[in-house]
């Protein structure tokens, strides 16, 4: 049996063919108003924390059941994928078109319970939906709705990214950060690998399970996240080359972002005229298709009961190493 091989994106394939990632029936739904800036949403945005409307009181959701069973009874592992972290691509055993990503955690049960409650409380259209949670042996497995690729892969394409696509990438990111600020949370980090593209051409933000508490009234709240956004925008604009001419709107937005130093600046940034070109959903589907058609996949055929697993907590795992996920037969 040949050893598992990585492709250029770090994917270890364990099937004879690559299945198309389809949205699961549990996938989060959203309306156009969640993504598209319009006069109503812009007029309701505020310019600082002192003008923020009071947050509505939402009852905490009922604790999610952690299923004490082998996830391979429900999902069939297909591939180990490395996006800066190990994920398992799996498909539902009954409905083969339903694909998911499985993330493995080696933590205490109390920690995973708190993490899952936080994820459920922070449900948002720009955050991947957590579908199931399993406990098998000494591991916990988080089952997420799938995504196609990340901004990291999109930046590796040879084609240029249009200004409209830049706006459609950044708009849901800023809306997600605005939502998290209202919940007194912030992302622990934000890189191009954390900006996920779905099959439908929508944007999701990874890393909510590692988010942390923040006091939005502090002058330096979300400063590190805004710094990360400046770096991401710079990488996007550099991708088109030094001879590419960007509009006054995006250059003005870049300048405004450079001057933004805390969470209180998010509302004003969302009001910027640069985002007026965001219309409808699915505007990034062509970019997703190009990324998928450009990336080459290497396929291997290891035993059916093997898949990538996590190493010691906090240490990266080599994607080419194949381990048992938990008795998949």
TrEMBL record:
Domain of life: Eukaryota
InterPro entries membership: Kinase-like_dom_sf (IPR011009)
Region (Disordered): 28-62
Regions annotated as coiled coil: none
Biased composition (Pro residues): 53-62
Compositional bias of kind Polar residues: 36-49
Name under which the protein is recorded: Protein kinase domain-containing protein
Organism annotation: Aspergillus kawachii (White koji mold)
């Amino acid at each position: 049996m040949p050893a598992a091989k990585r492709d250029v994106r770090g994917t270890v394939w364990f099937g004879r063919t690559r299945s198309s990632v389809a949205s699961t029936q549990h996938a989060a739904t959203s309306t156009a108003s969640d993504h598209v800036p319009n006069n109503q949403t812009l007029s309701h945005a505020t310019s600082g924390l002192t003008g923020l409307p009071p947050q509505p009181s939402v009852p905490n959701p009922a604790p999610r059941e952690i299923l004490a069973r082998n996830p391979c009874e429900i999902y069939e592992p297909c591939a180990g994928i490395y996006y800066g972290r190990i994920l398992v691509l799996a498909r539902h055993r009954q409905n083969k078109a339903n694909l998911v990503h499985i993330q493995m955690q080696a933590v205490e049960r109390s920690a995973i319970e708190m993490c899952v409650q936080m994820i459920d409380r922070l449900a948002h259209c720009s955050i991947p939906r957590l579908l199931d949670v399993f406990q098998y042996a000494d591991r916990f497995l988080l089952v997420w709705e799938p995504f196609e690729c990340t901004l990291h892969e999109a930046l590796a394409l040879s084609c240029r990214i249009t200004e409209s696509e830049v706006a459609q990438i950044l708009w849901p990111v800023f809306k997600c950060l605005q939502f998290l600020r209202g919940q007194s949370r912030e992302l622990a980090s934000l890189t191009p690998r954390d900006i996920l593209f779905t099959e439908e051409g929508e944007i999701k933000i990874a890393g909510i399970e590692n988010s942390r508490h923040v006091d939005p009234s502090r002058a330096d709240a979300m400063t590190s996240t805004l710094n990360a956004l400046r770096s991401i925008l710079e990488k996007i604009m550099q991708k088109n080359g030094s001879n590419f001419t960007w509009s006054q709107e995006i250059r003005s937005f870049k300048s405004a972002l450079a001057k933004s130093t805390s969470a209180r600046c998010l509302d004003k940034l969302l009001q910027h005229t640069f985002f007026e070109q965001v219309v409808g959903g699915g505007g990034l589907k062509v970019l997703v298709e190009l990324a998928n058609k450009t990336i080459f996949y290497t396929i291997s055929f290891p035993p059916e009961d093997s898949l990538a697993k996590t190493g010691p907590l906090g240490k990266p795992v080599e994607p080419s190493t194949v381990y048992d996920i938990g008795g998949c037969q």
